[in-house]
Structures are given as C-alpha cells and as structure tokens.
Design brief:
This protein is an all-alpha fold. It has 7 helices and no strands. The protein is globular. It holds the Pfam family YqeY. One of its GO terms (molecular function) is transferase activity. Keywords: Transferase. This is Glutamyl-tRNA amidotransferase.
C-alpha cells in the first residue's frame, strides 16, 4: 500500500473501527476489496490515479443504485446508498468549478482545432484531453454532454 490514497483509505478503515461506525467501515472495506481485486487481477501495485478510477466507478455505481431504488420506492435502501456515496466522495479531489470546466472545454477544443483534427474525431480527442485535466473532479458523462452541445453547429 504505497499510494497516498490507499493509505488514506486504510487510515479511514482504522478510524471507522475505533469509532464503531459500521456503515462507514463496510463502505471502506468494500472499496479496499475492489482495489485489492484489481491489483491481484492485473498483478500490479495501483497508483493514485488508478485508485481514483476505482473510486469514481464506485461513485457512479452508487448514483445509479440511488436512482433505481428511488424509482422503485425503496427510500431506506436509497438512503443507505447515499451514505456510502458520501463516504466515497471524501476520497475524491475537490470538484471543479463551473468556470474551470468551461475553460477546460474551451482549451481542449482550441488545442484539437490547432492540431488540425476535424469531424467526429474532435469529440474523442477533446474528451481525452479533458479526462486528463478533470478526472475525478467532474462527472465525465455530464462533461461529454456539454462537449457535444458545444460541437453542435
């Protein structure tokens, strides 16, 4: 466990155990298990960016579950998922501001245009640039929609 994010998660598990916060502990242990599974499957030591990708995936799953549970009228289960979501968000970097996202989209489109890329490839190239700049700091699906809107004539 060399990356700082993995250490922070491990410390969170220890703190949750000491404070007897069972719900928080369960969420953090589940996250640790997902990280460990990825390391075992790929036989590598994950760095912070890779751990961040796992956390983002867990956040996305929780958001989808919350929507599904609320639509099914299972508010108690949805509340539990929301609590888990809040625990996971503690390990994500600070959200990018609206202005920062807008500037990043503008810069990415300028760079792609300057590189002479046209047509449908613009979307892919711009998203690659944006993912590097904003990974973990904004919702990528929302960013993709925003970029598509900007590319519409």
């Amino acid at each position: 466990m060399s990356s700082s994010l993995k250490i922070a998660i491990s410390d969170g598990v220890k703190d949750a155990m000491r404070a007897k916060q069972t719900a928080r502990l369960g969420t953090l242990r589940f996250l640790q298990a997902a990280i460990k599974q990825k390391e075992i499957d790929e036989r590598i030591e994950l760095n912070d960016d890779q751990v961040l990708a796992i956390i983002e995936k867990q956040v996305k799953q929780r958001k989808e579950s919350i929507t599904a549970f609320e639509n099914a009228g299972r508010t108690e289960t949805a509340e539990a998922e929301k609590a888990e979501l809040e625990v996971l968000r503690e390990f994500l970097p600070e959200e990018a501001s609206e202005q920062e996202v807008t500037e990043a989209v503008d810069a990415a489109l300028t760079q792609v245009t300057a590189d002479g890329i046209t047509g449908p490839a613009v979307m892919g190239k711009a998203m690659a640039i944006l993912k590097q700049k904003l990974a973990g700091r904004t919702d990528m699906a929302e960013l993709s929609k925003r970029l598509k809107d900007r590319l519409k004539p």
